[in-house]
Write a structure and sequence with these properties.
The structure holds 2 protein chains of 2 kinds. By secondary structure, chain A is mainly beta. Chain A is 0% helix and 55% strand. The chains are: A mainly beta, B mainly beta.
């Protein structure tokens, strides 16, 4: 069984479009995250939700809006896509009591903006 | 100065070699130190974590933390081709759910 699953795996779209990425985890974790990995493999946190409450919101453009309908799901909506948004977006979750340092990652969504 | 510095490599070694991977950091508030392994086209997976200074061993892998030097290492003994991956160090202050990652070192173990 897949622990953290993201859809879609690949996303190719044009500048200016709006797109969403979905994430689900079946590990029973309370905390979920969105990380962005750029072309140089640098992995940086974007958002984190704990029990559906936003707890981390890094300096990310307002065009990015996360939503957590419940503890097991975290979605990312991106408006007005730009070329610089091309990256791999990883969803992750962490168990309670670890303060987020034992992350379980999905396999990423490869976003290409043309 | 970046918070976490990691030599991106690439690093290529023969099978059976001892591999040493390293990171330095500048933030003295970091208390938890992690190593993640990322295979191509996959998400990172946690290999090991240590709290504060000291060593931790798990099979062929040993993690070392020297907080006085702000330097962490991962040693892989008897390296195998299946160890070929990108290794990312990560650090946390402990209570804020935020990890700061290094850029990763690409390791290739040649049979």
């Amino acid at each position: 069984d897949t622990a953290v699953s993201q859809t879609p795996k690949y996303l190719v779209t044009q500048m200016g479009n709006d797109k969403s990425i979905k994430c689900e985890q079946n590990l029973g974790h309370d905390t979920m995250y969105w990380y962005k990995q750029d072309s140089k493999k640098f992995l940086k946190i974007m958002f984190s939700y704990n029990n559906k409450e936003l707890i981390i919101n890094e300096t990310v453009p307002n065009r990015f809006s996360p939503k957590s309908p419940d503890k097991a799901h975290l979605n990312l909506h991106i408006n007005s896509l730009e070329l610089g948004d091309s990256a791999v977006y990883f969803c992750a979750s962490s168990p309670p009591g670890t303060s987020g340092f034992t992350l379980h990652f999905g396999n990423g969504t490869r976003l290409t903006v043309t | 100065q970046k918070e976490v510095e990691q030599d991106p490599g690439p690093l290529s070694v023969p099978e059976g070699a001892i591999v040493s991977l390293n990171c330095t950091y500048s933030n003295s508030a970091f208390q938890y130190f992690m190593w993640y392994r990322q295979y191509s086209r996959k998400g990172p997976e946690l290999l090991m974590y240590t709290y504060s200074s000291g060593n931790k061993e798990d099979g062929r892998f040993t993690a070392q933390v020297d907080k006085s030097s702000k330097y962490i290492s991962l040693f892989i003994r008897d390296s195998q081709p299946s160890d070929s991956a990108t290794y990312l160090c990560a650090m946390s202050g402990g209570s804020n759910y935020k990890l700061t990652f290094g850029k990763g070192t690409l390791l290739t173990v040649n049979p």
